[in-house]
Amino acid sequence: MKFGIITALATEYSCLPPSLRDRAICCGVGARNATNAAESLIAGGADALLSFGISGALDTSLCSGQVMSIVQVIQVSDNITYSCNSLTSHYPTATQLCVSNPVIHAADKLALAANWSAHTVDMESSAVAAVAQHARKPFFCMRVVCDQAEDNLPAELVPLLGENSGVNPFALLASVVRRPTLLTDLFMLNRKYRIALRSLSAVGSELPKMIAEHVHQQ
Q1: Helix%, strand%, coil% for the chain, nearest 5
Q2: Exposure on the CB side of residue 209, measured as CA atoms within 13 A
């Protein structure tokens, strides 16, 4: 079984071991990019798709760096639920929401958790799941928590991030000039981001073994 792996960010892609990077695409932020990447991997012969990366927490019990094995993905805009296959039983299971825009306010995260009984949130996984379902291929989703449910993210974060997942340094500088305390907010977020990436890298190092064991069991 040949796995195709989708990450939104280059830093997530870098958490994959070199042996898996030739079957992975760093697609950028958003459902459209994820759909294009997933379709490209299927066209290239992938027998299964894996959404791999970091997510925001909706569940207040989750901390930065917590690894989650996603068992279902819910696309909020269309109220569509996709089931996920599991690569491992070593991590807690979770339901993940997929939204069109970043959820930056703690109150909104808590409301989503209450309304959907979900644990984490991202913007790409449901698009990957939809492509897998259409192609009748297994879908897998491994995520690591970055921002916690009680965290309010800087409002400036949304315009700073484009679909190519890069930060515009000139826009960042202008935002800091307008609000110098943004540096403190970004520092705190970056600390949690680094914690999440360390966990994601650890999961990435285990992926070849997880995949091999899953294929062996088929």
Answers
A1: 45, 25, 35
A2: 7
Give the tokens for residue 8. 């939104």
Q: Read off φ and ψ for residue 98, nearest 5 degrees.
A: -120, 125
What are the backbone dihedrals phi and psi of residue 48, each rounded to the nearest 5 degrees, phi first?
-155, 155
Taking the model in full, what pTM does it have?
0.89
Token output for 207 = 């992926």
Note whether 47 and 2 are within 8 A (CB).
Answer: yes
- Which residues partner with 82 through β-bridges? 73
> Residue 145: left if φ>0, alpha if ψ -120 to 50, beta else—which one?
beta
In terms of C-beta density within 10 A (0-12 exposed, 13-18 middle, 19 or more buried), how is residue 4 classed? buried
Beta-carbon contacts of 65 under 8 Å, excluding residues fewer than 6 positions away, are 144, 145, 195, 196, 198, 199
Contact 71, 201 (CB under 8 A): no
User: How many residues are recorded in the chain?
Assistant: 218
Q: What is the per-residue pLDDT across 144-190, written as a single tens digit (0 to 9) for each? A: 999 999 998 877 776 656 555 556 666 667 777 777 777 777 778 88
